[in-house]
Amino acid sequence: MSSQTRGPRPTGDADALDDEFDERPAADIASPYNTAPAQGGELLSRARDLLLAQNTPLASAELARHVFGGVALPAGLASPWERMLEQLLRPSPLFTQTDDGFWALTAWDATALSLDDVEFAVLDVETTGLAPGRHRVIEAGVVLVRGGELGVTYSRLLNPERHIPQFITKFTGISEAMVRRSRTAARVLPELRDFIGQRPIVGHNIGFDLSFLNFEADRCGISPAFALEGVDTIALARRYLTGMRRASLDRVAAALHIPTRDRHRALPDARVTARVFVLLLARAREEGCETLADLYRVLDGVAPDRRESLPAPRPTGRMYLNPAWRQSFPTQPGVYLMKDESGEVIYVGKAKCLRDRLASYYSQPLGYTRKMDGLLQNVRAIETRTLGSELEALLVESQLIKQLQPRYNVQLRNYEHYPFIKVDVQHPYPRFYATRDVSADGARYFGPFRSGRIVDATIELIQKVFPIRTCTRSLPPSAAPSEPCLRYHLKRCPAPCRGELDMERQDAYRAAVLEACAFLGGERDDLIDRLKREMFEAAARQDFERAARLRDALRDADQVLLGQRLVTGAVEANNLLIVYPSAEPEASELFLIRHGRLAALRRVANAPDAVERELRMLLTTAATLGTPPGKVGREEVDQINIIARWIHHHSDDTDRAFFRLPRDLTAEDDIAAFVGRVTEVLLAAWQPVEDDDSESLDGDEDEGVDTSLAGDVDDAADDL
User: Fold this and answer.
1) What are the DSSP calls for 540-609, one per residue?
2) Helices marked H in 139-232 — which ranges?
3) Which of the listed residues 496, 527, 561 is the one where a domain comes to its end?
4) Structural domain tally of the chain?
5) Is the pTM of this model over 0.85?
6) Both 135 and 248 in a single domain?
7) Residue 448, beta-bridge partner list
8) What would the pLDDT profile of 144-161 be if each residue is shown by its tens digit?
9) Residues with catalytic annotation?
10) Is the domain of 340 the same as that of 295?
11) In terms of residue numbers, what domain contains 330?
12) Which pLDDT tens digit goes with each residue over 494-528?
């Protein structure tokens, strides 16, 4: 459940929204998920504000002293003021009294609420694709549900600040023209978060929606973000609808006889999901589900049993981590070092927002992962180091792990085992194979890869797609001809082992090798695009099983080709300037990447003169690193891999963030043209985006084609 509280209602079609509030009874509007009490006026507000400020239950005397204006209360005796306080707070759903007589906010323990008192936020989002980070949210819709009734709605189009693929426009009906004057995620998401408040979030395949919203919140520096999990109607459908293995929203709605209209737009889909949730919740209540805690147990596959008390909560990091530390955690990106009682660093981590990441450890259950068993129990101090950007934090984390060798960091300590794929292009009939040694021997290397398993899968993929030999035997004329293997009979290899091939077959073999190298180097986008088209076509005809298989194939291809689009053989030549917004205000981070490594890092003020000066200094540095090193050291593999992955995940921002260095770093004309181009792009990026509040909150005027691909494909993945 989300930790944030609901703030002011969003602006926009305010009259319509107020009408919807006014039409509802006061008891319906007063909810533990709202920050403003609906009845009781100023006195209730005072009690709520004090509890929020103290963040702990308070005694009646202390609360009454604050609520009634500092009156003197006799110690040890129940005063009339305390009795008046009880009469004021007890009817309000905002407050609850603990077993020892202290007063608390009901939202602090909302899981104990009866389902009749819980107001849910049913959410749906539309996106430009399937992968958070590479794709963006373009529409969000929310419907509030309480007591089986649908209430206030919220809907916004979002400007993704990038191209919307044609197939997404075809499936959703949302075009670039529709979102061009809409507000960006940085402006809309705080409003959406405040509208949802602390309400439990419901959705069909809700993990997909929340992963997008939280990535966008991270990207925009919005804190607190959204809940990490919610109530998934897929899980409820599989439990309460017989034979519902493939629980897509259309199938579930049809099984419950719920009509669907304007499907695959955010608000209409949220309304359908809300009606589905109301009916499934009624079936859960027939089974004995009475509280929000019962509902969460149902989602975990445990039938509610009112004869036994709820199990004791699992111990969390709060038992061992000093709560005073939380006050000093910074909100900037950076790294953190966890130390034991002797001052030894036992774990190093990185974060886009150090405060949010470190705060999550306080609620993390102990023994959350086997490899981290004992970590939080041994932490006696946490050191934070703020940095300028996420990329710098990734690189510094890797360096610190290699330097300090913390015992709870495992993955980045295994850099000596990372393999590459090698192809000896100087051989008449090259083959592809794995190697852990990289040298300047004229061969081509692709990688590094994080595991031998990925390398084996990649080589197997090459052998399936391209007619290239796999054998290690010596070939004619240096060896006698031999009988070909099965691959020759399957037409997967021209069998140079039988004897020297004629010129036509030699050319064909060489072309296959070059094509395979282009595939590994990320230069064959047409193969990936073809898989994407087939996936979306399968989803359009509701063949979600095939769409899910194709999506998984694309995901595997991403792992195989990760980072190769811009890092094509880092040991050969990889010369980039990466410009990244700095965590420091009015500044940018400049990363000089030379031969796949970080050669220099500069922070520069957002001013043309300062940028031009730093760019020329960086180009001078790059010119001194003219030729790539003869061999990639083991300790460099992680840095190359981190940079490649970061580039891959941000590759859609190529025009703004990535700049190829000039070929001739000594030619003044080339240098001046490069500096001018980078400065021009940065100047455009620093300009504020025009805002427009023309769209309404309920979003009913934006009619679109009922073709939301992203949700359906991920629904299919859950069904499988």
Assistant:
1) HTT-HHHHHHHHHHHHHHHHHHTTTTT-S-TTT--EEEEEEE-SSTTEEEEEEEETTEEEEEEEEES-HH
2) 166-172, 176-179, 185-196, 206-220
3) 561
4) 5
5) no
6) yes
7) none
8) 999 889 999 999 999 999
9) 264
10) no
11) 317-409
12) 889 988 788 888 899 999 898 888 777 666 656 66
